[in-house]
Amino acid sequence: MRAPMTRRWLLPALLLLPLAFPSAAAAKVTGVVLTHCEDVLGGRPFGTTGAYEKCTGTIFFSLDPRLPRNAIIADLDKAPRDPGGAVGFSSDIFVLRPKDPSRGNGVLFFDVVNRGNKALLSSFNLAAGAVDPTTEAHFGDGYLMREGYTLVAVGWEPSPNTPAVALHPPVATDNGRPITGEISQWFIPLEAGRTFDLAAGIWTGMEDYPPLDPRDPDYSLTVREGFHGAPRRLPRESWEFGRMEGGQVVYDPRTLLLWTGFEPGYTYELAYETKDPRVIGVGAAAIRDAASYFKYEPSSPVRGEFAYALGSSQTGRSLRQLIYDGFTVDEQERKALDAVFVRIAGASLGTFNQRFGQPNEGGGHNTTRFPIRYESTRDPATGRVDGLGARIPAGLEPKIVLLESSSEYWDRGRVSALNHTTLDGLRDLEPAENVRFYLMGSFPHGTVAFPPRPLFEQQLPGNPLEGRFALRAILAGLDRWVREGVAPPANRHPTLAAGTLVAQRDIQFPAIPGVHWPRHVPGGYRSDLPGKLTDHPLPFLVPNVDADGNETSGIVVPDVTVPLATFTGWAFRSERAGLPGEIQMMAGSYIPFPRTRAERQRTGDPRLSIEERYTDKSDYLRRVEDAARRMVGERLMLAEDVERAVAYAGAHWDFLMTAR
Predict the structure, then answer these.
(1) Helix (H, G, I), strand (E, B) or coil at 367
(2) Number of H helices, E strands in the chain
(3) What single string gives the DSSP state of each residue in 383-431?
(4) Which residue has the higher pLDDT, 585 or 427?
(5) By CB neighbour count within 10 A (0-12 exposed, 13-18 middle, 19+ buried), where does 401 fall?
(6) Which pTM was predicted?
(7) Cis (ω within 30 of 0) for the bond into 539?
(8) CA 340 to CA 343: how far, in whole Å?
(9) Which residues pair with 310 in a beta bridge?
């Protein structure tokens, strides 16, 4: 049930037209042009909120580099200025809003797009993902619409690799002269081949920066075994920028050609000189100023009383950076963002506000640096005192949810445990009062569709756990926290005191035949101290597991408390994908239980079989329903999702007991 609005928004019909809307003098949005609006699903009503409309257009900004809230933006002082000394830029904008604003809930929910891709509908509406949501499947069960949210996406990253919502930032110069500099990027091929697309998938960081001289002999390409191996520089004549076309090499700055061929699983790192750095830090200011404008400017065509933002993975790291840079507060020291929902970001930041930064790079150990926690703490290595919230004044703190998966403890050095321990990993620390931290126990960074199936890139089938039922309940709790002051569920994460958080070397996995356990994978390292990355290891702490190998702490969904399989937040690369002793990024594994006692004894599996755990399917589903209703009582699942959770479990039972 959504909370009642504390204010009604009554907009004149004129504001619904595709016009430009100038800002007030104090606001830093100089215009909003909605070029197209159309009814969602032909005007179909969503509960008591009624019909929605979808609008697209452009939003224009102006930033004064001299203001303290803007001075933190790297190279903003080197961007072109208008006669008044301000820097202008624009972003694409996408809006889903109630056609009758008075029937909405007054919340602007910012979808911080991931490489141009929207996430709110797929995350909370149980919907299929879409760049341009149009069909019934794209809107799922309509949860966000039934609750009355206004969904907003404002471009914060330049040139995404999908035709969606982009930032159009200014370019920095040295008093009009081009600025040059070196950039680098690492990548790991999945398959052998002579070419690699530097703008494919998550490897989009170099898309805006072609090489100054494609044949420069000083450019370098190195290769190393795994992520931490010693790099070996490849001969310059062995590689070039280009692709094969008709037996000839055609220059292509997005494609790297290695004549000896790329080896799957190995880490390659390319470095070269480029020019014209985009002032990418304005992307966070775009989110800040759009939220502030829509909240405080009465003439704005998009209106709301509160503003929340969701970011996942890359965009979750960007929101951690946004908080650290103080962009939840606007230039007039008003709260721009009331709530920030950060998913699967670990303890990481990123290159979101620096010269030649690459907001679309893949993340990894190079993004882990001090500070990690919201409140200010002392860095034992440098003595520096800092915190993610150090630039946010008392009384203007946003409500923050940090929702993590097991992968953020295991994978790529994201060291998520340091969100709730001291930096040396020796003591538990609860998050700040305005922060909630939740672990989704046994979940990977990214789940796969059900039913689970073998994957080319990893040794075991992907982890198919469904986490969106919990996600919806957490959002409901965050919303009440902001609008009604009702505290959400308490932190749910492993702790040293309870023995649910343990050193990686001490974890005990069941001896399942044929399963390669992550006993020797590397942990995380700090990237903000002198010397090599590996000179500065961080504590490697992970959630403990039970006799089945499932995690026991955090938010443990019914499929894990009443299990049919072992679910993990890590996966090893397959032989075909190369280096099978290495972790596959952002992946999880699925290891089903034996169906019968005889099968268990025949295979030597130490885990009880399904028939030894449950008398039949009805017994299993009854236990699942009981577990789901307990989650409802803990405000970690919506009552309307209990039936869905049971149906999902039933499909899992049928898949295991009849399909194999």
Answers:
(1) helix
(2) 13, 27
(3) --EE-TTTTS-TT-PPEEEEEEETHHHHSTT--GGGGSB-TTSSSB-PP
(4) 427
(5) buried
(6) 0.94
(7) no
(8) 10
(9) 111, 341
